[in-house]
Amino acid sequence: MARSLPRGKEAGRLIQFVRGRPKRTKRYRELLTITHKTLEYLNQAAAQLPLASGPAGELWQAVVCHYRLLIERSIAQTERRVLAGEAVPAGEKLVSLFELHAEIIVKGSRDVQYGHKINLTSGRSGLILDLVIEAGNPADSERLLPMLERHIAFYGEAPQQAAADGGYASRNNLRQAKELGISDMAFHKKTGLKIEDMVKSRWVYRKLRNFRAGISCLKRAYGLGRCTWRGLDHFKTYVWSSVVAYNLALFAHLSPT
Predict the structure, then answer these.
(1) Which of 20, 44, 206, 226 is the most buried (most CB within 10 A)?
(2) Is the distance from CB of 188 to CB of 209 less than 8 angstroms?
(3) Do residues 233 and 173 share a domain?
(4) Do 192 and 80 fall into the same domain?
(5) Which residues lie closer than 8 Å to 22 by C-beta, 6 or more apart?
(6) Helix (H) or strand (E) segment spanning residue 241
(7) What would the pLDDT profile of 1-47 be if each residue is shown by its tens digit?
(8) Does residue 115 share a domain with residue 73?
(9) Residues 14, 27: Cα–Cα separation, whole Å
(10) What CA–CA distances, in Å, run from 196 to 190, 199, 200, 211?
(11) Residues 132, 42: one domain?
(12) 142 and 71, same structural domain?
């Protein structure tokens, strides 16, 4: 008795939860079969709709041509990566048919996410002072010094004290931060660094380590956890709108009545 294939969404969901390469490969083959059939149906429909059907038909054909190329690229990418075991360079990977600008973001052992990495700095009040929407997936440790240098360029001097997540920590970053004029540079995870090398006292380290830049509030209350606008330009606008709204609300709260 022939076994029916799962539907597209179901096949994709099964891949997320299956364990072991042989089982995952089997599920990917099922998904590829479904995708090939869907592409075949799309080509048949396109062949039956002539360009002479007017502007609407021409527009539909253009959309079909656009997505056909992306689907074929996605199929080839999956066959290379899953079936052939080839390591596809990140720059060649297509992770979304609808948001072509989306990039792969890997944060430690946590689930892979898609979008763009954001680095921001804030002051003691929590006000966001700078924001960079990164290209690619640079390591946090590579972005500490550029963010500090941007701060100095904007405000004319280095902050006396600074705190950063553990991903930004390295002995070289600590040394260069000190050379830039930062007296106390605290990383949330010491990663082999001594507290005495980072700050003047353990009390200062606890104060800086416990500082929160407002990122959780930005995600929960201002929508920064998930962008719902389409296109890279709209993505950037969405991010900046969230930050500006957060700053305005915080500024109103901090202003004397």
Answers:
(1) 206
(2) yes
(3) yes
(4) no
(5) none
(6) helix 232-254
(7) 445 556 667 777 777 777 888 888 888 898 899 999 999 998 888 88
(8) no
(9) 7
(10) 11, 6, 6, 19
(11) no
(12) no
Domain containing 52 equals 8-92
Asked whether the beta carbons of 131 and 243 are under 8 A apart, the reply is: yes
**For residue 32, which of 87, 64, 80, 69 has the smallest C-alpha distance?**
80
> Residues 27, 18: contact at Cβ < 8 Å?
yes
pLDDT tens track of the chain, all 257 residues?
Answer: 445 556 667 777 777 777 888 888 888 898 899 999 999 998 888 888 776 567 888 888 888 899 999 999 999 999 999 989 988 887 788 888 889 898 888 776 557 788 899 999 999 888 999 999 998 888 899 999 999 999 999 999 999 999 999 889 999 999 999 999 999 999 988 888 999 999 999 999 999 988 876 788 898 899 988 898 999 999 999 999 999 999 999 988 876 75
DSSP E strands, the chain: 103-105, 113-115, 118-122, 128-133, 161-164, 184-187
